[in-house]
Amino acid sequence: MIQYLQNNSDTVLAALRQHLYLALVPVLLGFVIALPVGYLGVRFPWLYHPLVNVCGVLYSIPSLALFVFLPVVLGTKILSPLNIIVALTIYTVALLARTVADGLRSVDKLVNEAATAMGYRRTRRLIDVELPVALPVILAGLRVATVANISLVSVGALIGIGGLGQLFTRGFQLFYLEPIIVGIVLSVLLAAVADLIIVLIQRAVTPWARA
Amino acid sequence: MNLSYLFDPANWDPSAAGGFPQLLLSHLWYVFLALLIGTVIALPIGLYIGHTGKGSFIAINAGNAGRSLPTLGLLMLMVTLLGLGLLPVLIALTVLVIPPILTSAYAGMRTLDRRVVDAAKGMGMRPWQVLTRVELPMALPVMMGGFRSAALQVVATATVAAAVGLGGLGRLLIDGLAVNDYSRVLAGAIVVAVLAVVLDLFLALVQRWVVSPGVSGRF
Questions:
Q1: B147 Cα distance to chain centroid
Q2: What is the mean pLDDT of residues A173-197?
Q3: Which sequence ranges are marked TM in the entry (chain A) (predicted)?
Q4: 8 Å CB contact of A191 and B1
Q5: Structural domain span for residue A127
Q6: What is the pLDDT of residue A8?
Q7: Which residues of A touch B193 (CB under 8 A)?
Q8: Rounded to an integer, what distance in angstroms lies between the CA atom of residue A151 and that of residue A71?
Q9: Residue B213 C-alpha, separation from nearest chain A C-alpha, in angstroms
Q10: Total domains, chain A
Q11: C or N terminus of chain A, fewer CB within 10 Å?
C-alpha cells in the first residue's frame, strides 16, 4: 500500500484535487441557489409542498442516469466535467432548498414578531434574525449534502471524469486492490474532514448555541 | 434528443434478452434481494439499540459512515476481492442498505415520546408488547423514511453495478457508452430515473397504508 502510494503519488494527488473540485464547487453553487429557492417556499406558503415534492423527485434520480442524461440536455461533451458539476449541483439544491425552507419555518414566530416590533423590515429581519436562527438546521443539511457529494463524485469515473473514482476503475481493470483501497480510504477521509470543517464553522458562527 | 431506442417496440418485447422488460425485472430483483437481506440484518439491530438505548453510537455513526462510502469503490473492491458474479455485487448493495435502515430504526425508536412508553409499561405491557404494539407503530414513519432512502440508494447503485458485470438497467447505460450509442444511453437514463421516482411514490403509498392513522394524524 505504502509502495503504491510512493510510486503513484502524482496520480493520486491529481485525482484527489479533481475530486475536491468536483465535489465542492457544486456544494457552493447549490448552497447559493438553495437559499433563495428555500426562502420562496417560506415566503409563499403554497409553494412549500410543490417545492418539497420536486426536490424529492430530483433527489431520487440515480446519479449515473443524471450524469449521462445531462450532456444531451446541456449540449456538453460527455467527457466535460460540467456534467458532474451540474448534476451534483442539482442534488445539492434538491437537498438544501428543503432544509433552508424547514430551517426558516422552524424560527419561533415570537422571535419574528419581536424583530418586527423593533423596527426590522422584511429583508433586514431575514438576514439579521431569521437566517442566523435557522443556521444550525441549514448547516446540518449542508453537512449531509457535502458528504453525499464527495461519495457521489466517484461514480463519474464511469463516464471518464471522477476524481478518486478513476483509482477504482484503474484498480478494477488491472485486478489490483491497492488503488481501490487507497481511493475508498481517501474518499471517506475527505468526507470526514469536510464534515468536521463545517461543524467547526457552525461552532464559530453560532456562538449562542455553545452553552 | 434521440429517443428512437426508447420507443423502438423491439426493445419492449418481454421475451427479448436485453429488452426493457427483462432488464427492468432483473433490476428489481437485485433491489428486492438487497433490501430484503439488508432489512433482515439491520432492522433487528436498529430496533434493539433503539429499544434498550445500548450502543447508540453505533447507530448514529453507521448513518454517517454509510453516506460517505463511495458506492463505485465498494462495488469494485468486492468484485476484485471475490471475482465477478452476483454475490460480490449483492454484498456491496447490502452493505449500502444497512446504514439508512439501521439508523432510521434507531432514530424512530428514540424520537418517540418516552412518556407513551412509560404509560404502556404502567398499563402492564410486557417488554415485547411495548415493542410491537407501541414503539414499532409509532416509529414506523421514520423507519419508512430510512427504508425509502435505502431503496433509492440500491436502485442507483444497481445501475452503477452494470460497470462490474451485473445485469439490470445499468447495462443500457454502460453498453451504450461503450459503443457510443447515445440513443440507448438516453433510454436507459430515462427508464432508470422513472423507475426510481415510481418506486419512491409506491413506497410513499405503502407508508400511508401501513402507518396507523392514530400516528399519522389522518383520521
A1: 6
A2: 92
A3: 20-39, 51-72, 78-97, 131-160, 180-201
A4: no
A5: 2-209
A6: 84
A7: 61-62, 65-66, 69
A8: 21
A9: 21
A10: 1
A11: C
Distance (Å, whole) CA B149 – CA B7: 30
* Residue carrying C-alpha cell 417545492: A51
d(CA A165, CA A84): 12
Domain of residue B116, residue span: 18-216
A55 touches chain B (CB under 8 A): no
Dihedral, A48, A54, A57, A62 alpha carbons, nearest 10: -120
Total domains present in chain B? 1
Q: Nearest residue on chain A to B162, judged by CA atoms?
A: A158
- Smallest Cβ–Cβ distance between A188 and the set B69, B170, B185 belongs to B69
Query: Burial of A84 by CB count in 10 Å (0-12 exposed, 13-18 middle, 19+ buried)?
Result: buried
Q: Is B95 on the interface with A (CB under 8 A)?
A: no
- Are residues B188 and A68, on separate chains, in Cβ contact within 8 Å? yes
> How far is C-alpha B87 from the chain's CA centre?
17
Dihedral class, residue A92 (left if φ above 0, else alpha if ψ from -120 to 50, else beta): alpha
CATH number at residue B167: 1.10.3720.10
Residue B16 · residue B200 · CB < 8 Å: no
How far B50 CA sits from the closest chain A CA (Å)? 22
Choose the mutation target among B2, B6, B68 for the interface with A, i.e. most A CBs under 10 Å: B68
Within a domain: residue B9? no
Can you read off the three cell numbers belonging to residue A30?
Answer: 447549490
Q: Which of residues 88-127 of A touch B (CB under 8 A)?
A: none
For residue range A51-80, what is the model confidence (pLDDT) as tens digits?
A: 999 998 898 889 998 998 888 888 888 888
A158 in B contact zone (CB under 8 Å): yes
How far does the CA of residue B122 sit from the closest CA of chain A (Å)? 34
**Cα–chain center distance at B211:** 19
Question: For A145, which residue in chain B has the nearest alpha carbon?
Answer: B67
Whether B64 has its CB under 8 Å from any CB of chain A: the answer is yes
Distance of alpha carbon B15 from alpha carbon A13, whole angstroms: 48
**CATH (domain of A55):** 1.10.3720.10
Q: Is residue B13 part of a domain?
A: no
Contact A68 B164 (CB under 8 A): no
